[in-house]
Design a protein that fits this description.
Radius of gyration: 18 Å
Structural class: alpha/beta
Order of helices and strands: HEHEHEEEHEEHEHEHE
Distance between the termini: 30 Å
Shape: globular
CATH topology of the largest domain: Rossmann fold
Largest sheet: 6 strands, mixed
CATH architecture of the largest domain: 3-Layer(aba) Sandwich
Protein backbone atom coordinates (compact mmCIF):
# COMPACT_ATOMS: atom_id res chain seq x y z
CA UNK A 1 0.00 0.00 0.00
CA UNK A 2 1.19 3.53 -0.74
CA UNK A 3 -1.26 5.75 1.12
CA UNK A 4 -3.48 6.34 -1.92
CA UNK A 5 -7.25 5.73 -1.73
CA UNK A 6 -6.85 2.86 -4.20
CA UNK A 7 -4.24 1.15 -2.04
CA UNK A 8 -6.30 1.69 1.11
CA UNK A 9 -9.35 0.13 -0.54
CA UNK A 10 -7.16 -2.81 -1.58
CA UNK A 11 -5.96 -3.25 2.01
CA UNK A 12 -9.54 -3.54 3.23
CA UNK A 13 -10.33 -5.99 0.44
CA UNK A 14 -7.28 -8.01 1.47
CA UNK A 15 -8.52 -8.04 5.07
CA UNK A 16 -11.87 -9.46 3.96
CA UNK A 17 -10.09 -12.09 1.87
CA UNK A 18 -7.82 -13.00 4.79
CA UNK A 19 -10.83 -13.46 7.06
CA UNK A 20 -12.50 -15.59 4.39
CA UNK A 21 -9.38 -17.74 3.89
CA UNK A 22 -8.55 -17.95 7.59
CA UNK A 23 -5.04 -16.55 7.18
CA UNK A 24 -3.09 -13.57 8.46
CA UNK A 25 -2.70 -10.26 6.63
CA UNK A 26 0.63 -8.56 5.97
CA UNK A 27 0.43 -4.98 4.68
CA UNK A 28 3.40 -4.08 2.49
CA UNK A 29 4.66 -0.63 1.59
CA UNK A 30 7.53 -0.01 -0.80
CA UNK A 31 9.69 3.08 -0.45
CA UNK A 32 11.53 4.15 -3.57
CA UNK A 33 13.60 7.28 -2.99
CA UNK A 34 14.42 9.08 -6.26
CA UNK A 35 17.91 10.51 -6.71
CA UNK A 36 16.44 13.99 -7.11
CA UNK A 37 14.51 13.70 -3.85
CA UNK A 38 10.84 14.47 -3.30
CA UNK A 39 9.32 17.97 -3.54
CA UNK A 40 8.42 19.30 -0.11
CA UNK A 41 10.95 17.14 1.74
CA UNK A 42 14.56 17.94 2.66
CA UNK A 43 17.21 16.67 0.25
CA UNK A 44 19.42 13.68 0.96
CA UNK A 45 19.21 11.46 4.03
CA UNK A 46 17.07 13.91 5.99
CA UNK A 47 14.32 13.70 3.38
CA UNK A 48 14.58 9.93 3.20
CA UNK A 49 14.21 9.66 6.98
CA UNK A 50 11.19 11.97 6.91
CA UNK A 51 9.59 9.94 4.11
CA UNK A 52 10.13 6.69 6.01
CA UNK A 53 8.67 8.16 9.18
CA UNK A 54 5.57 9.38 7.35
CA UNK A 55 5.12 6.07 5.52
CA UNK A 56 5.48 4.05 8.71
CA UNK A 57 2.92 6.24 10.47
CA UNK A 58 0.37 5.77 7.68
CA UNK A 59 1.05 2.03 7.58
CA UNK A 60 0.67 1.68 11.34
CA UNK A 61 -2.62 3.61 11.40
CA UNK A 62 -4.09 1.48 8.64
CA UNK A 63 -2.92 -1.76 10.25
CA UNK A 64 -4.49 -0.71 13.57
CA UNK A 65 -7.79 0.19 11.89
CA UNK A 66 -7.92 -3.10 9.99
CA UNK A 67 -7.09 -5.06 13.13
CA UNK A 68 -9.93 -3.41 15.05
CA UNK A 69 -12.41 -4.25 12.27
CA UNK A 70 -11.09 -7.81 11.82
CA UNK A 71 -10.03 -8.99 15.30
CA UNK A 72 -9.77 -12.59 14.13
CA UNK A 73 -7.16 -11.77 11.47
CA UNK A 74 -3.54 -11.32 12.59
CA UNK A 75 -2.41 -8.06 10.94
CA UNK A 76 1.21 -7.02 10.45
CA UNK A 77 2.89 -4.39 8.33
CA UNK A 78 6.29 -3.74 6.84
CA UNK A 79 8.14 -1.00 4.96
CA UNK A 80 10.75 -2.12 2.43
CA UNK A 81 13.10 -0.08 0.27
CA UNK A 82 12.72 -0.74 -3.45
CA UNK A 83 10.31 -0.42 -6.32
CA UNK A 84 6.70 -1.44 -5.76
CA UNK A 85 6.91 -4.22 -8.34
CA UNK A 86 10.07 -5.74 -6.83
CA UNK A 87 8.90 -5.45 -3.23
CA UNK A 88 5.47 -6.92 -3.93
CA UNK A 89 6.87 -9.74 -6.06
CA UNK A 90 9.09 -10.77 -3.16
CA UNK A 91 6.23 -10.44 -0.68
CA UNK A 92 4.02 -12.67 -2.83
CA UNK A 93 6.31 -15.69 -2.46
CA UNK A 94 4.48 -18.18 -0.26
CA UNK A 95 1.41 -15.96 0.12
CA UNK A 96 -2.10 -17.32 -0.38
CA UNK A 97 -3.11 -14.18 -2.25
CA UNK A 98 -1.54 -10.86 -3.26
CA UNK A 99 -3.94 -7.89 -3.38
CA UNK A 100 -3.17 -4.58 -5.08
CA UNK A 101 -5.24 -1.55 -6.00
CA UNK A 102 -6.00 0.17 -9.27
CA UNK A 103 -3.88 3.28 -9.68
CA UNK A 104 -4.53 4.42 -13.26
CA UNK A 105 -7.67 6.27 -14.34
CA UNK A 106 -9.31 7.18 -17.63
CA UNK A 107 -12.02 9.84 -17.78
CA UNK A 108 -13.79 7.82 -20.46
CA UNK A 109 -13.25 4.28 -19.12
CA UNK A 110 -12.90 4.79 -15.36
CA UNK A 111 -10.33 3.10 -13.09
CA UNK A 112 -7.56 1.28 -14.92
CA UNK A 113 -4.84 -1.02 -13.65
CA UNK A 114 -1.53 0.77 -13.35
CA UNK A 115 1.77 -0.52 -14.69
CA UNK A 116 2.70 -2.18 -11.38
CA UNK A 117 -0.51 -4.24 -11.29
CA UNK A 118 -0.07 -5.33 -14.90
CA UNK A 119 3.57 -6.27 -14.29
CA UNK A 120 2.60 -8.29 -11.22
CA UNK A 121 -0.11 -10.09 -13.18
CA UNK A 122 2.59 -11.34 -15.54
CA UNK A 123 5.02 -12.60 -12.92
CA UNK A 124 3.63 -13.25 -9.44
CA UNK A 125 4.02 -16.88 -8.34
CA UNK A 126 0.52 -17.12 -6.86
CA UNK A 127 -2.97 -15.64 -7.24
CA UNK A 128 -3.20 -11.87 -7.68
CA UNK A 129 -6.31 -9.81 -6.94
CA UNK A 130 -6.41 -6.41 -8.63
CA UNK A 131 -9.06 -4.69 -6.55
CA UNK A 132 -11.55 -2.40 -8.24
CA UNK A 133 -14.92 -1.23 -6.95
CA UNK A 134 -17.70 -2.86 -8.96
CA UNK A 135 -20.64 -0.95 -10.36
CA UNK A 136 -23.63 -0.45 -8.01
CA UNK A 137 -25.77 -3.58 -7.98
CA UNK A 138 -23.09 -5.78 -9.54
CA UNK A 139 -22.82 -9.19 -7.92
CA UNK A 140 -21.50 -12.67 -8.56
CA UNK A 141 -18.36 -13.96 -10.24
CA UNK A 142 -17.50 -14.51 -13.88
CA UNK A 143 -14.80 -17.05 -14.76
CA UNK A 144 -12.89 -17.13 -18.02
CA UNK A 145 -12.85 -20.80 -18.99
CA UNK A 146 -11.04 -21.57 -22.23
CA UNK A 147 -11.24 -25.32 -21.77
CA UNK A 148 -7.56 -25.67 -20.85
CA UNK A 149 -6.65 -28.05 -18.00
CA UNK A 150 -7.21 -26.30 -14.69
CA UNK A 151 -9.10 -23.32 -16.07
CA UNK A 152 -12.51 -24.60 -15.00
CA UNK A 153 -11.35 -24.76 -11.37
CA UNK A 154 -9.82 -21.29 -11.09
CA UNK A 155 -11.83 -20.29 -8.04
CA UNK A 156 -11.11 -23.53 -6.24
CA UNK A 157 -7.42 -23.18 -7.05
CA UNK A 158 -7.23 -19.59 -5.85
CA UNK A 159 -9.53 -19.48 -2.86
CA UNK A 160 -10.43 -23.05 -1.96
CA UNK A 161 -14.15 -22.59 -2.49
CA UNK A 162 -16.76 -21.64 -5.09
CA UNK A 163 -18.62 -18.42 -4.45
CA UNK A 164 -22.39 -18.09 -4.99
CA UNK A 165 -23.54 -16.55 -8.22
CA UNK A 166 -20.80 -18.11 -10.34
CA UNK A 167 -21.18 -17.49 -14.06
CA UNK A 168 -19.24 -19.74 -16.45
CA UNK A 169 -17.97 -17.95 -19.55
CA UNK A 170 -16.81 -20.62 -22.03
CA UNK A 171 -14.25 -20.03 -24.78
CA UNK A 172 -13.85 -16.40 -23.84
CA UNK A 173 -10.18 -16.48 -24.87
CA UNK A 174 -11.41 -16.81 -28.46
CA UNK A 175 -12.89 -13.31 -28.29
CA UNK A 176 -9.84 -11.20 -29.33
CA UNK A 177 -11.09 -7.94 -27.82
CA UNK A 178 -12.31 -9.52 -24.60
CA UNK A 179 -15.77 -8.14 -25.35
CA UNK A 180 -17.70 -11.18 -24.11
CA UNK A 181 -15.93 -11.34 -20.77
CA UNK A 182 -16.20 -7.58 -20.37
CA UNK A 183 -19.93 -7.78 -21.01
CA UNK A 184 -20.40 -10.40 -18.29
CA UNK A 185 -18.04 -8.66 -15.87
CA UNK A 186 -20.14 -5.48 -16.06
CA UNK A 187 -22.72 -7.18 -13.82
CA UNK A 188 -20.21 -9.06 -11.64
CA UNK A 189 -18.15 -8.08 -8.63
CA UNK A 190 -15.21 -10.28 -9.64
CA UNK A 191 -13.72 -11.65 -12.86
CA UNK A 192 -11.38 -14.65 -12.63
CA UNK A 193 -8.82 -15.38 -15.33
CA UNK A 194 -5.94 -17.81 -15.57
CA UNK A 195 -2.44 -17.47 -16.93
CA UNK A 196 0.27 -20.03 -17.66
CA UNK A 197 2.84 -20.47 -14.87
CA UNK A 198 6.01 -18.41 -15.13
CA UNK A 199 6.58 -14.88 -16.35
CA UNK A 200 5.35 -13.99 -19.81
CA UNK A 201 2.96 -11.80 -21.77
CA UNK A 202 -0.67 -11.73 -20.70
CA UNK A 203 -3.47 -13.02 -22.88
CA UNK A 204 -5.34 -10.22 -24.62
CA UNK A 205 -8.51 -10.93 -22.64
CA UNK A 206 -6.65 -10.68 -19.33
CA UNK A 207 -4.89 -7.50 -20.36
CA UNK A 208 -8.20 -5.96 -21.44
CA UNK A 209 -9.85 -6.80 -18.13
CA UNK A 210 -6.97 -5.39 -16.12
CA UNK A 211 -6.73 -2.17 -18.07
CA UNK A 212 -10.40 -1.31 -18.50
CA UNK A 213 -12.56 -3.96 -16.87
CA UNK A 214 -15.49 -2.79 -14.73
CA UNK A 215 -14.78 -4.98 -11.68
CA UNK A 216 -12.01 -6.58 -9.64
CA UNK A 217 -9.84 -9.13 -11.44
CA UNK A 218 -8.35 -12.28 -9.94
CA UNK A 219 -5.41 -13.64 -11.94
CA UNK A 220 -4.54 -17.26 -11.15
CA UNK A 221 -1.55 -19.25 -12.45
CA UNK A 222 -2.82 -22.54 -13.88
CA UNK A 223 -0.92 -25.60 -15.00
Amino acid sequence: MDGSPSATDAAWAAARAAAWLGVGLHLVRALEWPAAGVPGLPPGDAGRVAARRSALTELSRLADAVQVSHPGVPVTGGLTDGTAADVLTSAAVGASLLVVGVRGHSAREGPRAGSVAVALARSTPGPLLVHRQAAPGADGVVVADDGAPGSAALLDTALGTTRPGLQACRRVSRVPSGALLLELSATSSLAVVGRPPGAGPLAETTSTLLRRGPCAVLVVPVR
